[in-house]
TrEMBL record:
Residues 32-189 form the NB-ARC domain. Residues 1-23 are annotated as: Disordered. This is FxSxx-COOH system tetratricopeptide repeat protein. It comes from Streptomyces nigra. It comes from the Bacteria. InterPro entries: DUF7779, NB-ARC, NLR-like, P-loop_NTPase, TPR-like_helical_dom_sf. Gene3D superfamilies: P-loop containing nucleotide triphosphate hydrolases, Tetratricopeptide repeat domain.
Length: 839
């Protein structure tokens, strides 16, 4: 929820765009010197370059309050003022996405793209040049810094307890109040307090602003004499020191809160218990809607009654606010300071902690949307996620809470946040292995999702070891025919693909699909998922015709079940498009592919894994359709986007990088294609090994570039080794093997060995015709190369006849304007590049 409205002309009192700013503290006191100093610094930097300013200091000194007060005093001097909770990257991303919407920049539901758009708009100063971003509670410079605009005409303000910001931002340290400021705030809330009593209170509270404000609020509410308050404060401090006391700097404020908490516990036990529950959540907004759903079990007597009665719940929340124990935001959420949470947890017994932590978990589980595959539910899972992590929901003994943890893992996977998903899944797997046992259903369930996350991140060996152990456990505990066991077989099939054992993977995925057909029928979602995986395996083995038939049926079933705009529908549609493309239907494949990218972008955003995968394959479709410059632009954009999202070593990034090298060569950028080709081949070798089909395809692509650049001898050496391994792994008739055989023939031709070239090209041509018919574009490319060889050995008449037939077939298949037509007519040797299929 944003503060204020976005408007074109501004009001003279507010910025044109402003939002998320916490409410102004009506009792703000002092800090005039710091406010003036901050304003002078921001004015200086506004005239030069963006330099972050870090307002830092220990907890409770009022860093955020200072920033809020500055904004309300100076916001009219800015076009854009935006407050960003920065303790976690998810918060930053959500806030910047909202800003993108207010600036009319947001591309649908795509968070990363919206963030990029905002940062670029701020950098160039369009539509507004005078802006101020406030990153509140930014504890990790490494994490937060990447969300800063790279320059621009605005300002960045940071509040943090971390002094490391001083090395990369201009620091402004906020210390405790001066004594007069403490006394002023105390008298503001209680004018009857004498100067002497105010001095004694300030001394006892160490002039810590948060403690002073809390004590002033409590005194105003109760009217207790200062002597009595100081006596209680001394007792609470002794209680702290007898136990495991917090940091010295936190003792005064925690002791002060203990007095208010005692009063609240007496006056409204349910409100107190509600605070106890919330103390186990993250110090981030907690939606009031979280308390609207009945938990799956009792928590505490008073709290249970309040949670069933909206009126009593509102009264409890009102009493919490009267003692300044939580902040209430405009978006109908409440937020607790981490020191209030520490005070609450410190005063609990171990039994209380266990009870209230369990209550926190039960409320979270009651709000589980129960469908992490539905992108409409992702915002709900995103709001629950920080509280699931901080509350240590993985330690819950409740079945429903563990289900929520697994669903959060699936949500993070589907959202494409692999790193966060892997961290949560690993924590759950380790915890449940120790507390429930490695063979417990929840332990095995989260292990399966962890295996898929590891696969998605390229941690293949770890994924394979985990998947093998999970399959073994299911077979031991549930038998070979149980559904969970069958699912685990599907994960192991993926590991075979990673190892390059495509035939074995096909055998396994075929068996999984058949078992689901018998168990659940052809239209069950599990059967459709197995059918999709079968299509993947068929493509990898080169059986594109059968893959097309399977994928088309699966795609149509998904449309009937979910509609066209569903993640599963789009994923299988990509498979179908790849099938028809590899069967030579380049025009139809390109049209479908363009529509797929548009749909995926609209539904999921440009930076979702499904969109990125579709986008990088679009480059290959454009290239095969003869649109080489367009393909190069697409390939560069796809690789850049994947690097930004997942880094340069991610498997999908490497697949996009391989396509880019082909497009660079096709557009004449041979030197860059060669340099990038070597790097891609090295990366894939590290990822898959020397003999994996994907690595071998990269080697053949590199050889093609070497030959085009004039080094046919090096290309020949590469192709000979690659062909030997490809035929062993995939057989002689796989498109990848045929493309390698053609590349080797081209090397012989360039080295003045036309007879050897003719023999290889003729063999490849005949095999391709048997596999794909006379009119497949790859078959026609092989025919052109045979015609070139025939002319080289003096058989010109045969060459001309073959060339004539081939040109006519090319025109019928690809249209008269495709670049391949001119190459065929001119008898230019054709480079046949094979695009590896997704694993």
């Amino acid at each position: 929820m944003s503060s204020g409205d976005s408007n074109a002309g501004g009001t003279g009192n507010t910025p044109r765009v402003w939002g998320n700013i916490p409410p102004r503290n009506p009792n703000f006191t002092g800090r005039e010197e710091l406010l003036d100093q901050l304003h002078r610094r921001l004015l200086v930097d506004e005239a030069t370059a963006v330099v972050p300013h870090a307002v830092h200091g220990m907890g409770g000194v009022g860093k955020s309050l200072l920033a809020v007060e500055y904004l309300y005093r100076r916001m009219a001097e800015y076009d854009v003022v935006w407050w960003i909770p920065a303790e976690r990257t998810t918060q930053i991303s959500v806030s910047l996405v909202e800003l993108a919407t207010r600036l009319e920049l947001a591309p649908g539901s795509d968070a990363p793209a919206a963030v990029d758009a905002v940062l670029e708009a701020l950098r160039i100063g369009e539509p507004y040049s005078n802006w101020l971003l406030v990153f509140d509670n930014a504890e990790s410079p490494e994490t937060v810094q990447r969300f800063f605009p790279a320059g621009g005409p605005g300002n960045i303000l940071i509040t943090s307890r971390n002094p490391q910001w001083a090395s990369i931002a201009r620091p402004l340290e906020v210390d405790v109040f001066r004594r007069e400021e403490s006394k002023q705030l105390l008298r503001l809330r209680g004018s009857e307090i004498s100067d002497e009593d105010a001095d004694r209170l300030a001394e006892a509270l160490g002039d810590l602003p948060l403690a002073i404000e809390q004590a002033a609020a409590w005194h105003a509410e109760t009217g207790m004499l200062v002597d009595e308050y100081l006596r209680l404060l001394g007792e609470k401090r002794l209680d702290l020191l007898r136990g495991t006391a917090p940091l010295d700097s936190q003792q005064p404020v925690i002791a002060a809160w203990n007095i208010s908490l005692d009063q609240l516990e007496t006056k409204n036990p349910a409100a107190y218990q509600l605070l106890q529950v919330c103390s186990f959540y993250a110090p981030e907004p907690i939606a009031r809607a979280l308390f609207a759903r009945a938990p799956r079990g009792p928590i505490a007597t008073e709290l249970d009654a309040v949670l069933e009665d909206t009126i009593r719940l509102n009264l409890a929340i009102r009493d919490i606010g009267r003692y300044s124990l939580a902040r209430f935001n405009r978006d109908d959420s409440l937020q607790m300071h981490r020191l209030v949470q520490a005070a609450l947890q410190y005063r609990m017994t171990e039994e209380d902690r266990a009870t209230m932590r369990r209550g926190a978990h039960l409320l979270l589980a009651a709000n589980d949307p129960h469908d992490p595959n539905d992108f409409h539910r992702w915002d709900q899972y995103g709001s629950l996620y920080p509280h699931v992590v901080v509350s240590e929901a993985v330690r819950s003994q409740e079945h429903w809470v563990r289900n929520l943890v697994v669903n959060e893992v699936v949500y993070l996977l589907r959202r494409g946040d692999y790193a966060s998903g892997r961290e949560l899944a690993r924590t759950a797997y380790k915890t449940w292995s120790e507390t429930l046992g490695r063979d417990h259903p929840h332990t095995l369930l989260v292990a399966r999702w962890l295996g898929f996350l590891l696969f998605s991140m390229g941690a293949y060996r770890e994924a394979a070891d985990l998947n093998a152990s999970v399959l073994d456990a299911y077979r031991r505990t549930m038998g070979h025919d149980a559904q969970d066991t069958i699912d685990a077989v599907g994960n192991v099939a993926i590991d075979h693909r990673v190892r390059g054992d495509f035939a074995e993977s096909l055998t396994l995925t075929e068996s999984v699909h058949q078992q689901y057909l018998r168990m659940l029928g052809p239209e069950d979602p599990e059967t459709l998922r197995a059918a999709h995986n079968l299509g993947v395996s068929l493509r990898l083995t080169g059986d594109f015709a059968r893959a097309r038939d399977i994928d088309e049926m699966t795609w149509n079933s998904y449309i009937t079940m979910y509609g066209q705009d569903h993640v599963d529908t789009l994923r299988t549609w990509l498979g179908f498009i790849l099938d028809i493309r590899e069967l030579g239907e380049y025009g139809d494949a390109l049209l479908y592919h363009q529509e797929l990218v548009e749909r995926s972008t609209s539904l999921l955003g440009t930076h979702h894994p499904s969109t990125l995968s579709a986008f990088h394959h679009l480059a290959a479709a454009q290239r095969l359709a003869g649109r080489h410059e367009q393909a190069l632009r697409t390939a560069e954009q796809a690789q850049d986007a994947l690097i930004r999202r997942y880094g340069p070593e991610n498997p999908e990034t490497q697949a996009a990088a391989l396509e880019l090298t082909v497009d660079l060569r096709q557009c004449g950028h041979v030197d860059r294609a060669l340099a990038d080709g070597f790097e891609v081949w090295h990366q894939l070798t590290r990822l898959y090994g020397h003999e994996h089909p994907r690595t071998l395809t990269a080697a053949v692509t590199l050889a093609n570039t070497c030959r085009v650049r004039g080094d046919a001898a090096a290309a020949q050496h590469i192709c000979r080794a690659a062909l030997r391994h490809l035929t062993t792994r995939l057989g002689d008739d796989h498109l990848s093997s045929l493309a390698c055989r053609s590349s080797l023939a081209s090397c012989h031709h360039d080295l003045g060995e036309p007879d050897a070239a003719l023999e290889l090209d003729t063999d490849a041509y005949q095999r391709a015709r048997r596999m794909y018919g006379d009119d497949h574009p790859h078959v026609l490319a092989h025919a052109v190369n045979v015609a070139v060889d025939l002319r080289s050995v003096g058989r010109s008449q045969e060459s001309d006849q073959l060339r004539g037939r081939t040109v006519e077939r090319f025109k019928r298949r690809l249209g008269s304007r495709h670049p391949a037509i001119r190459s065929a007519a001119d008898l230019d040797r054709m480079v046949i590049d094979y695009t590896p299929m997704p694993l």
